[in-house]
User: Fold this.
Amino acid sequence: MSLLSIQNLSLSIHGKPILKGVSIDIEAGQVCGVIGESGSGKSMTAFSVVQLLPDGASSEGKVMLDGIDVLTAHESTLCDLRGRAVGIVFQEPMTALNPVKTIGDQVMETILIHERVSKAEAMDRAADALTRCELPPDRFPMTRYPHELSGGQRQRVVIAMAIALRPKLLIADEPTTALDVTTQAEILQLLKQLVTEDGMSMMFITHDLAVVTGLADKIVIMKDGEVVERGHAATLHTEMQQPYTKQLFAASTHQPERGQQSTPDPILKVENAVRTYLLPRQSFFGERPEFHAVNDVSFDIKRGECLGLVGESGCGKSTLTRAILGLEPLKSGRITLDGEPVSTSVAQRRMQVVFQDPYGSFNPRHKVERLIKEPFHRLDRQATEQEVDDALVSVGLQPSDKHKYPHEFSGGQRQRIAIARALIIRPDLIILDEAVSALDVSVRAQVLDLLVELSREFDLTYLFITHDLTVVRSIADRILVMQKGKIVEQGATEDVFGAPSSDYTRSLIAAAPQLPDMTKASTS
Assistant:
């Protein structure tokens, strides 16, 4: 008998069909990867298991969890199941944690809600859960707050909350999407270890095939609220039958056709850049120590080139980006765009940036037309309607889209709007800050193709900042590797990947998840 058995599950919200006859079985101790793009229904399937559904939701079918039909169970039964029989790890730990509670209190809360134990015993068990998640209290005091931890450490706290009561099923909903490759590898290893030690089952939800292939026992592919294919994780790449599955695998390894040739002349020069921040005093009369976020960094970007900048969170990528954009002053060193200091308005008018989360960088109350016109506030004229139309058409959208709001578009379309906004003043340099990290694999492939096409058409130069080594290898001409504020390696993309000279670069490449050899994939 399966620990979790979903049979012919259909779900509608206010009459709109969301899930259509979904069937998934997960045995005890088994890891099931649920793969699909945004809107495929994978998260709604998981939320149906614990009945965390929005108002207006109506379900049909059967969902049996540890012998209980959750679709007909009373709310009190469901409250007992949540946390005790099933734990959930969400994608963004900072939103899953309470910012005004210590990490010890938050893990302990899970135990106190479900079991009648003393606060002291609950604290001991919380310490044990955090230790199992590699956050021992002697190194990471339980009195710390979420903002005092890194992204990977916060995700470990969320995992500790989910496994504190040793549930039989763990639902992990995109738990590594926003993490660096090394942190991602550590979290995946931790989840695998916990499943082995506790005999837990796990439903691992993601859109990244490479991440789940090495973790799961079986894979379920979802599209438009339906299961379109299922199979063993180790052999699905050779036995897949559905065109959609083949499309996902192809998009995961997509290589844009880079035909743009860079010139030998640099457009941007960074010379011995140093950016420091003052830290709190260690004593009342002591001097304030300095933290070197960017430490003697030098490089240049050639006109027409795509330069990749990779490194883990905290390495100084974002600080360097703000300095290049003229948003933060350097302590020493120099950054110029065609000989002009980037702090001047002349240079800043020739640079634009595309952020990771386009929805967060848009004002949701403004229509697309106004959003795209925003860069013109630095110029001495207003954008014409034709310029807005041309910018939208250049990124594959329609001129009529300018009358819509950001929420009316998909994630990939919103990123296209962000690129159109960057393009409209015809900049010389565009900085892409994790611009495709949150996108589905097929949408990501489309955006990468678009960037290459626009580079050829408008003679653009890119600084491509990412933690995804697969992406940067597919689009960058050269790569800079940054660690602790310094450039530890740089060179042509294939040279860096083929023969890395730095131990740090080798560790990044080794940690990146890899898809199995597709040369043996079925062509049927």
